[in-house]
Design a protein that fits this description.
Blueprint: E1 15-19, E2 22-26, H1 33-43, H2 48-53, H3 55-75, H4 91-106, E3 112-119, E4 122-133, E5 138-139, E6 146-147, H5 153-165, E7 186-192, E8 198-204, H6 211-216, H7 228-237, H8 246-254, H9 271-283, H10 287-299, H11 311-315, H12 325-335, E9 348-349, H13 351-362, E10 366-367, E11 370-371, H14 375-381, E12 404-406, E13 411-413, E14 428-431, E15 437-441, E16 446-451, H15 458-473
Antiparallel strand pairs: 1-2, 3-4, 3-16, 4-5, 6-9, 7-8, 10-11, 12-13, 13-14, 14-15, 15-16
Helix pairs in contact: 1-3, 3-13, 4-15, 5-9, 8-9
Length: 484
């Protein structure tokens, strides 16, 4: 049987250039979207034996298609450049990002990473570093899949807000409306007597937790990272033992006392995991099915899921260094529960997929002519609800960080803070214990994403990347971005 000949891509000024692992994008002029789409459709359209014979060839083309797809998706993203457009990044400053990650990999602090900076809907920096797994030494690629861990939370929060938009949930609904076990939940208070002996007293909740509390991390639900009695209580509850789904997990959490009165304190924990169960009941679907139908498929996030189904997918998964023991253990636990679609930490994705989600947020809740969230709901989601005057306290474990408030699933920049780190008022961000990070700056019409699997190095890497990204945008005679 004669094998089909793959058509050559016609010559044009617009091209995707490859220099080592750096994927440089030259958009040129004119419109070749249709030509490029036809090229990759034909490249993947083999039948029967032809597809088998060319499977290796197509696998190589897939990575090229991901790169071109990233460009093409955002060529039509609706991003507009005004006359007084924000500054573009300086190439010599972007090189400093390359130098930094090359050093991190060369010195063994990171196995590998992928970094994307996108402005006006187009990639201005996209580079892979190192390997996805030091045991196999396979190179990091754009189709490498990363455990998102807490960068799952913004996606789950969007799913909840879509149901609010549709009238199927209300922010003021009691969690007990969907999970009755939360109806009589108590609040734990630690008491210390005159002899210094501590004891736990259970008191009545001043008000029940709401859907809004789950979104804001103000429900009083915690996790086992908090010290003293909270850590002991959550550790002894064995929340992750045995077989369980979102329904069972929510029941296990409901058997524990809240650690603060609802609405009074920002406490990071399992709130978004419980929110995942609320979404299931409100939508009548599993969490993944709702996300797939309403978010992933429309956005083209074809590689975002809770479970990697095939050996080919699992081979694309990035792994932490063996010495990164906390993350290694967390990944072992995550994979041990494929039945649990954890809304707070369970998704796996690629940088190409997450860029689609982030661009939709940068565009105010819409992409490619489709609106995912009403403008009113999007504004509410991206407004700080826990800052001064809100009545919400916080402590050392306030992960939005200095100068940031918190909306529904995302940190929101509200001021310079004590450290005066670079950025813009209204900037959105979130990250994870696995080292993944997303920043969305609407004043610069820019987003940046870091994909890595690293707990030990994630703090220094996150701080350095943020500085290098903003330095690149203020290097051409532009002053530090205003905070007022």
């Amino acid at each position: 049987m004669t094998q089909p000949a793959w058509p050559a891509l016609p010559p044009s000024p617009r091209q995707i250039g490859f220099a080592g692992n750096l994927y440089s994008v030259d958009l040129g002029s004119g419109d070749r979207s249709a030509s490029i789409h036809r090229y990759f459709n034909l490249r993947s359209a083999g039948q029967g034996n032809a597809r088998t014979a060319y499977s290796s060839h197509i696998a190589n083309v897939r990575r090229s298609a991901l790169i071109v797809g990233l460009v093409l998706h955002f060529m039509n993203s609706g991003a507009t450049v005004e006359a007084a457009e924000p500054p573009a990044p300086a190439p010599e400053k972007l090189q400093l990002i390359t130098d930094f990650f090359n050093s991190e990999v060369a010195t063994g602090r990171l196995p590998g990473a992928v970094v994307l900076i996108q402005q006006h809907g187009h990639p201005v920096y996209l580079k892979t570093f190192g390997v996805r797994d030091v045991r196999t030494n396979l190179p990091m690629t754009l189709d490498t899949m990363f455990a998102l861990h807490s960068m799952t939370k913004p996606i789950t929060s969007l799913a909840a807000m879509m149901l609010v938009d549709a009238g199927k949930l209300s922010l003021d609904d009691l969690v007990a409306k969907y999970i009755p076990s939360f109806a009589d939940i108590k609040v734990g208070v630690q008491r210390v007597d005159a002899q210094g002996k501590a004891s736990l007293e259970l008191v009545r909740a001043e008000r029940p937790p709401t859907v809004r509390d789950l979104l804001l991390q103000t429900s009083g639900i915690a996790a086992d990272y908090v010290g003293d009695w909270v850590k002991k209580l959550y550790s002894e509850a064995h929340l992750l033992d045995g077989h369980f789904d979102n329904a069972e997990f929510a029941e296990r959490v409901a058997r524990l006392p809240l650690t603060r009165q609802p609405g009074t304190f920002w406490r990071y924990g399992h709130s978004t995991n419980v929110l995942g169960r609320v979404i299931e009941i409100g939508s009548g679907e599993t969490l993944y099915h709702f996300m797939k139908q309403r978010i992933f498929d429309p956005l083209g996030m074809t590689h975002t899921k809770f479970v990697l189904d095939t050996p080919e997918e699992r081979a694309l998964k990035a792994e932490p260094l063996p010495s990164d023991t906390i993350l290694v253990d967390e990944e072992r636990t995550r994979r041990a529960h494929p039945e649990w679609e954890a809304g707070g930490s369970g998704l796996v994705s690629t940088i190409v997929d997450y860029a689609r989600f982030a661009q939709m947020l940068l565009n105010g809740g819409q992409l490619d002519g489709k609106r995912y969230l009403s403008s009113t709901a999007f504004e509410d989601m991206t407004t700080d609800h826990v800052g001064p005057g809100s009545g919400v306290g916080h402590d050392y474990f306030y992960f939005p960080g200095d100068g940031f408030g918190f909306g529904y699933g995302l940190a929101v920049r509200t001021g310079p803070g004590d450290t005066n780190q670079p950025g813009s008022i209204g900037e959105l961000k979130w990250d994870s214990g696995a080292g993944t990070y997303v920043g969305i700056d609407r004043k610069l019409d820019m987003l940046y994403i870091l994909m890595e699997q690293a707990d030990n190095e994630r703090g220094p890497v996150r701080v350095t990347l943020r500085k290098l990204v903003y330095d690149a945008f203020i290097s051409k005679g532009v002053e530090r971005i205003e905070h007022h």
